[in-house]
Amino acid sequence: MEVENTGDAFTIRLSKKSSAELAYHIEGSRIFLDSTYTPEEFRGKGVGARLVEAAISYAREKGLKVVPVCPFALEYFKKHPEHKEILSSDFDASYK
Q1: What CATH number is given to the structural domain containing 48?
Q2: What is the pTM of this model?
């Protein structure tokens, strides 16, 4: 699955007519993961996780801290505590 960064979203083309997307914005030294969308027929197949992983890689490359706003990204970080060091220090500690 190839992930494209459009400057405000990470996108995976799934077919000619559908794609999955993780929208984000950057403020200062933080990247906010705003919303994730995966078409229903592709859910549960690791597409959303691949998008979050691309965002984590991008954040590391650019020296950014992550603020997971969308519910999917929040759940991803709960399930993958090995990435907690990338979370912004002012992020709600209950999700770390």
Answers
A1: 3.40.630.30
A2: 0.92
